[in-house]
Each structure stands twice: as structure tokens, then as C-alpha cells.
Design a protein that fits this description.
Layout (H helix, E strand, L loop, with lengths): L35 E7 L11 H20 L6 H18 L4 E9 L2 E8 L20 H11 L3 E4 L5 E7 L6
Antiparallel strand pairs: 1-2, 2-3, 3-5, 4-5
Helix pairs in contact: 1-2, 2-3
Amino acid sequence: MGTATAPSTTLPAGKGLAGHEGLPHRNGVRPRSEGQLETTFDISQGGTREVLPRRDAARVGAMRRIARAFLAYHELDPMEFVVSLIVSELVTNAVIHSCGRKVGFDMALRDGHLHIVVRNDRTGVCIPNCAASDNDEHGRGLQLVAFAVREVGGTWGIEDDGMAVACHLPVTGGTQ
């Protein structure tokens, strides 16, 4: 089982993680003082799957909680819904479609934007599924990400090597 790791610093005194006490300290994940978070975790051996293995599904949930803790730490609670949705969809896609063994998740605050990057360890281009019918249970994740990012005035894209998807969202509220 992989562990999430990140360079860590001590949280400033009196700067709690509202509703998420202790979360960033578990698994070695902590917000860094310069507004950056990085973590990598192992996933079950790849291949396209309809249902996530239990351990991988738990990792998706953990990344959502870590993202919410990061936002709370930086007083960016108004961004919680859209960021949770984006992180959930991107991490799930990386786990299901990468055919790799590791997924990386980064968040950073720079230049008035929240930068989210989810990467895998295998090259391959993700293409949004534009053919999902009304009855399909899968196939709309990247469409949902595109819509959510557009609605908040951000940008997103797939890096040239196909190993990472990045979103850049304008910061709403908080300590930029």
C-alpha cells in the first residue's frame, strides 16, 4: 500500500484546519507554507475498470478531503464545491484510465489562481467522451470538469505527454 508524502512544514500557530483537524498530518500530507501541496500514492494495477477497487476509491475520497483541508487552511471555503468535484473527477480518471501504478496530486496558490494538477506515471492522451448517452453511467467526467472550470472563469488542459491534467481557477475569497 502506498503512502502519500509531501515536504512538510509546521502549520502557523492558531491556523487551524476548520473541520479537518489532524487531516493534513495523516499520511504525511501537509500544506506547505508557500501555498503548495504535493502528494503521490500507489494505485491498483491499471486497466480500464467500471468499478474502482475499494482501496483506490478510498484514495479518491482522501484526495477530496485533502483538497478541502487545503482550501480551509487558506480560507478559500467558497471554492470547496467546485474544487471537490474537479479533484474527484480527475483523480478517478487517473486511477481508472492511466494503466499505471502511481497518481500524483498537486495544488498550489500562485498569482491569484488555484492550480490543480493530477498526473499518472504512464503516457497517454485523455480525450473527453462526447458520445455519452442519457442512459450511460460513465463517460462524462472530463465534460463535467470542463463545465465546472468554465463556470468559475478558469482554464484547464491536458499536458502534451498526456500524463497530467491541469486546472487553473481564479481564487475566490481567502488569503491569496
